[in-house]
Amino acid sequence: MSVPSPSLPASASASPAAGSAPTQADLLDFVRRTAADAELIASLPLDPEGRTWVRLKGPGGSEAWLIGWPPGTGTGWHDHADSVGAFLTASGDLTEHSLAARLPSDGWKTLELTEGVDRVRRLSAGQGRAFGRHHVHEVLNESRDRHAISVHAYYPPLPQIRRYSRTGQVLRLEQVERPEDWQ
User: Fold this and answer.
1) Which residues, 6+ apart, have CB-to-CB distance to 180 below 8 Å?
2) 80 among annotated binding-site residues
3) Which of 22, 122, 158, 166 could form a disulfide with 16 if both were Cys (CB 3.0 to 4.6 A apart)?
4) Which residues of the sequence carry a binding annotation for Fe cation (predicted)?
């Protein structure tokens, strides 16, 4: 991974009602409007070897990121713990593999998944999605020759990210990261 760049302000910030937490819809609206900021998207430094990112000012105290994805890169399986979120592809194409099942939030290391829980979404420029708490997924740039750029927002700001490995229908908790690990 590349070293994070300094924060850049998003030119279009969503405004949830004063004193209220941003909803999934607010976050999706924010990532959609931010991804439409061509100057901001073009300002992200791209690295052919690893993902790059810039922290953005999200709506209502949310955590937001602009992320560059070289060809063939991905996140690996993970969740965002108790945060809700949204992301949108600003340029290129991303693929999201997710689980259509609510997993126990704590107290397990290995879990056998039932058949039929896998979902795949292909998200081209301008396409995105919102998701709830404990959403387990991986995001990939499957292109062989083109970078992708996306905008992400989470509320509350990420308390942790749980990383998983997957072999067939077996999902294993491998690591828990805290904000100091990625900021």
Assistant:
1) none
2) yes
3) 22
4) 78, 80, 137
